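Researcher: I'm preparing a figure for a lab meeting and need a structural model of a single chain. I don't have an experimental structure, so a prediction will have to do for now. The sequence is pasted below. Please return the structure as C-alpha cells so I can convert it later.
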Amino acid sequence: MKKIPHTFTIVFFLILFAALLTWVVPGGEFVRETVDVVNADGSVSQREVVKGDSFHFVDRSPQTWQVFSSLFSGFCDKADIIIFILMVGGSFWILNNSHAIDIGVMAFLRRVQRLNRFALFRKLGVNNIIISLIMIMFSLFGAIFGMSEETIAFVVIFVPLAISMGYDSIVGVCMCYMAAHVGFAGAMLNPFTIGIAQGIAGLPIFSGLEYRFFCWIVLTIIGICFVLLYARWVKRNPQKSPTHKIDEYWRERSQQQSAESTHYHSPRIAWIVYAVIGVVLSWCAFRFPTTDISIAGGNSAICLMPVLAVLFWLTGFFALRKSVHFFILDLLIFTICYLVVGVLGYSWYVMEISALFLAMGLLSGIADKQSADDLAKLFLAGCKDILSAALVVGLASGIIFVLRDGKVIDTILYGLTKSLAKAGEVTSMGAMYAFQTMLNIIMPSGSAKAALTMPIMAQFADLTGISRQAVVLAFQFGDGFTNMLTPTSGVLIGCLGIARIPYGVWLKWVWKFILFLIVIGFLLILPTLFIPMPGF
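Model: Understood. Here is the structure written out cell by cell.
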C-alpha cells in the first residue's frame, strides 16, 4: 500500500503551492471600510468589511523566502490555539495519571451493558444510543454557540471511550469534533457565522430560524447515520480500520492502566480540595446570582452559578465517599458545565477555557496527593506528548499568510464573483455556494470570511433576484462543511494530533462524506429560491 505522507509534509507542500500562486495570479485588493454591525445581544460593534465596487489591481508580491517566515507568522497568529492545546494536553496528562477517566469509562460501560436486559435497547443497540446522544449534544453545541476550538479538549476523552467500546479513534473524533462541526454548518444561532453574516447583509439577527432548524435536523441525522454505519463496520472488521495500527497506542495505554490494581481511597487532601472548590463556587454564585444567556436575539437570566454550586457540594461529597477517582471525574464534569456557561453567558474563549482546564488538572493532581514537583513533571510530559499537534496548527496557518501577503486572495474573490453577474438564479446560487466552499479551504475563519464576502455577495443577490437570506445560508454551508477536511483549520489539525490520526488518513476517510454533505447542502439551499419561507 502506498505510504501516506506525514501531515507536516502535506501542509508544507501546500505552503509551496500557495507561494506558486503568488507568481501567476495578478495582485489585487479591495478597499475596506468600517461599518456598524448589530450583535446577537442587540449591541452595536464596528467591523471592517469590503466595499463592493472597490477592487483594483496592484503590483504582484511574489512570495519566496516568505515561505519560511510564514511559519513564524503562523505560529504567532495561532499562538492562542497552540497554547490552548499545550495547556489542555498538560492538564489532562495530570488527570489521566490518576486513572480516573479509565475507571469512569469502565464503570460507565458496565452500567450501560446492563441495559441489554431490555429488548428495546438490545434491538437498537446500547452503543448506538450512546454515540447518537453524544453526537446530538455536540451538534447542538455547534449550532447554538458555535463550538469549535472547544472540541479539542474533548478528543482526549472520547477517543479512549470509543476504543473501549470496540471502535477506533476515528469514531471517537467523530463523536465530538465531527458532530460539533456538522452542527456548526447547520447552525441556527451561531453568532460567529450567522450573526455576523446577517448583520453585514443588513438582515435581522438570527432571522430565518425555522428553516435553519430543519436543515440542522437533516444534517445531524445524516452525520449520526454515517458514523453509526462506520462504527458497525469497524466493530465487525477491526483489522480493516484505517487507524488500527495507530490505535495500538490507545489500546496499550488502556490495557496497562486496567492491569494496574486500583486502590479506591479518599485522602484528606482531597476533602480539602473539595472544600476549597466549594467555597470558591459559592462565592461565584453570590457574585453572579444570575447569568444572562443570549439566544436568538433574546436574553434569559438564569440562576446557573447557584445551581452548579449546590450540585457540586452534593455530588462532590458522595463522590469522595466512594473514591477520589470519582471526585476527579465529578470535577471534570463540572469543568465542562462551567465551560458551557462561560461560553454562553460570559463570552469565554480559549484563554478562559485554558485557565479552566489548567485549574482542573492541578486540582485533580493535588486531590490525588501529587507533589508540586510531580505536577510540574506530569504537565511537561503532557505538553511533550501533544507538542506535534500544537506545532502543526502553526504550520497550517502559514498557508494563509503566504496567500494574503502575496495579495492573491482578493483577486481570486473578485474573479469568481464577477463571473456570477450574468448567471441565472440557480446557477448563481450554486456558484456562490461553490465559491464559499472553496474559499473556506484557504480561509477557515467564518467571521473573517463573512466580513470579506458578504458585502459583495449581498449586492450580487440583489442583482440576480436571490434572497439575501439564501446567500447567508450558502455562506453558512460553504463555511461549515469543508472545515472538516481543510488543512488550514487549526481546530481540525489539533484534534487529529491529539487523536494521533495522520491528516492523510483522515482526508482519505472523510472526503466522500464531505462531498455528500456539500451536495445535500445545495439541495437544502434550492427550496429557498422557489418556496416562500419565514425570513427568506
